Each structure stands twice: as structure tokens, then as C-alpha cells.
Amino acid sequence: MEKLPQIDTELLEEEQDEQLFEHFRFDVDPGQEPLRIDKYMAAHMEHTSRHRVQCAIKEGFVQVGDKTVKANYIVRPGDVIRFVMPYRRRGVEILPQDIPLNIVYEDDDVLVLDKPAGMVVHPGHGHYEGTLVNALAFHLGITQGPDEGDDRMGVLVHRIDKDTSGLLAVAKNDEAQLNLARQFFDHSIERRYNAIVWGDLKEDEGTVDANLMRDPSDRLRFCTTSDPERGKRAVTHWKVLERMGFVTLVECRLETGRTHQIRVHMSSIGHPIFGDERYGGTEIRQGTIYSKYKQFIHNCFELCPRQALHARTLGFVHPRTHKSVYFESPLPQDMTALLAKWRAYVKDFSHICK
């Protein structure tokens, strides 16, 4: 069984790329007798029950020769079995820390929480403590080492980056983890974000359908590409909610969930998210040349010192009840203050903004 290398989570900040990552791999011995795959995997995976294996198989996360199989598949010599999931396996120890959590909803299967801006989601390079997962470990009363095979505790089946606020879903057991992971992988989860972007968009709504790839000049950035053979397809639907002259409040609905997707897509059409240093949002993109205006923008950046992006809504099918559930998070104080400041500016200087 192979171990995966430690992951630099700085490269995984925004929505987790929707692809399958190998968590476990088994190269079946030449002398292996025929055996059901669920029995074989349960016997070869420490701290993992046959029930968990069967749940993974049911959701389509077990492959033999790159093809999904059923629980009654008979393992044969030479088979290559892979347990894959739509997120990378962690590579650091999870230490419980008593950090307050804003829990929106919780039952025996799922937990939905509202993450504040500035909080790192997962321990990794440069952030081993004080993360959301450390807080979840304390809340759930569980701790695990870096090589622990059972990843059930408080599994985040998606993530948002450090300086984005808003809703996240957590799975609390086998069935919930695998069911929610499948919903995210199939793009059936409803996710809507609110963002304050530079400029006045010409249309009231639109769609950005552009592949994303790693920026060749900066490994921490992504960029769009017109080459259909490069990058990964990404689709963002946007709608104008409020126009404020030089900035606009928009709603962005994710069809896919690529890393930094909304930030890159809005920047690619000339409307970077206000305050987004990585994608041009801390430059004065619209407005006047007057020093008072520059000071106003500086004050805005101090009022909301991060990209003005908030995961506003989250909807999914509950893994146990199979009923649709929907959650909404109000805009955080820094974004509401920023909006109030821009509304006042537009009201006082409407002749400039026209």
C-alpha cells in the first residue's frame, strides 16, 4: 500500500478541484485466491471496516484497472485496486484545539459551519495549528496522526480559502462522507457566492466558461486558457445584484469548483474581486484621479482587508433523509461595512459615477 506525499495546502486554497485523488492502492499478489473486493479491502486496510469499504464502493470510489466495480467483484492476481476520493489525503497530524466555531446546523450525519475570513481550513505547509480542522477535531473529540488510515473524523468534503468567508459542509460518518463527496464530484451541490468586484459590468448577468490552469509565471496563481487541451474546464455563472458606480455587488453560482475559480474568472473578464491582491483587486481599476478618491479606496481596503468574497449559500441532498437542505449565511461585517461605504460614496458623488 503506497503512502501519498505531504500536500502543500497553500496550493489548494479555494474550492477543491473536482477530480479523484488516490488514497490507497493495492497491487494484488500473484498467489491471491479469488475473493470479494469488499472483503479483500477490509482485510488490507487498517482502521477501516468492511461497512466503510462497501459505502465507498456504492458511491463509485473504488476502481480496478481505472473502472469502478461493485462489492461482489472478485479480486484476482495482478489486479490493481485504487480507493479514490475527490480530495487529497492529508499528510499532517490533526491536533484538537479549542477554537470557537460558528455552527449553522448539526445532526448525527452532517455539520454546516460559517467560516470567518482569515481562518485556514486545513493544516499544511506553514499552518499546522489554528485551522478549521483543528477546531473540528476538538468539537468532535477526536485526534489522529498523519498516517492514520481512517479519515472519517470531521471530513471537509470541500474547502474555501483562508481569506474567503462563508459556508462549509462537514461529514461526520462513513455514509455522509462518501455521499456528500459524490454530490460535490457530480456538481449537484448548490453553491452561490457574493462578491464585490471592480467596475460596472455591461450586462445584468452572464457566464464565464474558460479552462483554468496553473500560471506558468507564478505557482500560487491560476489563469484562464483558450487552449481546450490545457487546464480544466471551469464554469461560473454571475448576476448583478447592485451597481455602485465603480464597483458592483454580484452573485456567482458555481457549476464547477476549481481552485480560485471565481477569483480568476472575474479577473479574466476585467472585473477582479475588490481587495484580491493575488488577482489584481488591490489596484485602483476604476474611478477618478483625485487624491481624495485614492484615500477613499485606501480606507475601503482597510475596512475590508481581504478579497470581498463570501460563500453565501449551500444546498445539498441530506445523506440520510434524502431531502434537499439549504443554508444561507449573511454577509460578514467587513463586507457589509464596505458596501455601506460605497453606497454613501455613490449617493454623495452620483454625478461622478454616471
Q: Please, could you describe this protein's structure?
A:
A hairpin with a 3-residue loop joins β7 (about 105) and β8 (about 110-115). It is built from eight helices and 18 strands. The protein starts with 20 loop residues before the first strand and ends with a helix. About 20% of the residues lie in helices and about 25% in strands. It has about 350 residues and is of the alpha+beta class. Strands 7, 8, 9, 10, 11, 12, 15, 16, 17 and 18 form a ten-stranded mixed β-sheet that branches. Strands 1-6-3-4 form a four-stranded antiparallel β-sheet. It folds into three domains: about 20-85, Structural Genomics Hypothetical 15.5 Kd Protein In mrcA-pckA Intergenic Region, Chain A; about 105-185, Pseudouridine synthase (2-Layer Sandwich), CATH 3.30.2350; about 190-354, Pseudouridine synthase.
Keywords:
alpha+beta; 8 helices; 3 domains; Pseudouridine synthase; 354 residues; 27% strand; Structural Genomics Hypothetical 15.5 Kd Protein In mrcA-pckA Intergenic Region, Chain A; four-stranded antiparallel β-sheet
In short:
The chain has 354 residues and is α+β, with helices and mostly antiparallel strands. The chain has helices spanning 37-44, 50-58, 132-140, 174-185, 261-268, 291-303, 333-348, 350-353; strands at residues 21-27, 35-36, 62-64, 67-68, 74-75, 80-85, 103-106, 110-115, 155-156, 165-171, 190-198, 205-209, 211-214, 222-225, 235-244, 247-254, 309-317, 324-328. Residues 1-16 and 149-153 have low confidence and may be disordered.
